[in-house]
Design brief:
Blueprint: H1 12-47, H2 54-83, H3 100-137
Length: 138
């Protein structure tokens, strides 16, 4: 009688195991979806060579600016047709001229500089913190 199903017994145990299975399956599904999105993003970055020169990155940003708004409009029209909802028309996105070439190298240099001094700064800040704690405990 330990693990077997008895006819006429309440279904609450079976429902609980079904709910547990669903939750475990849902967690695995969420993990797979997130992993697929992350993998797709990595593939897209590699395929479009976005980590290459700034010319390629700027061209990809321009291409995305041309492709994404029409795709969003088509998707919103599809959702309206399928659900019967009326989605208000969004204003056109502003035209932004952001020269990646001018800021790309400065950003990389800033990040690498911060990473290179991080160990010495961490040591310096920990010494200051230790001195502060010692002074306060006396």
């Amino acid at each position: 009688m330990g693990g077997e199903c008895v006819l006429g017994a309440s279904d609450s145990g079976q429902e609980a195991s079904r709910d547990t299975w669903f939750l475990q399956d849902w967690k695995a599904g969420k993990f797979l979806i997130k992993g697929s999105v992350a993998g797709g993003a990595v593939y897209l970055v590699y395929d479009q060579e976005l980590l290459g020169s700034s010319d390629k990155s700027q061209a990809a940003l321009k291409k995305a600016g041309e492709v994404v708004p029409p795709a969003m409009y088509q998707f919103s029209q599809y959702v309206c047709q399928q659900t019967g909802l009326q989605i208000p028309q969004l204003p056109a996105p502003p035209k932004i001229h952001f020269p990646i070439r001018d800021s790309w190298n400065a950003g990389i240099i800033t990040v690498m500089s911060a990473l290179s001094v991080a160990p010495s700064k961490a040591c310096e800040y920990s010494k200051e913190g230790w001195e502060y704690v010692k002074a306060r405990t006396k």
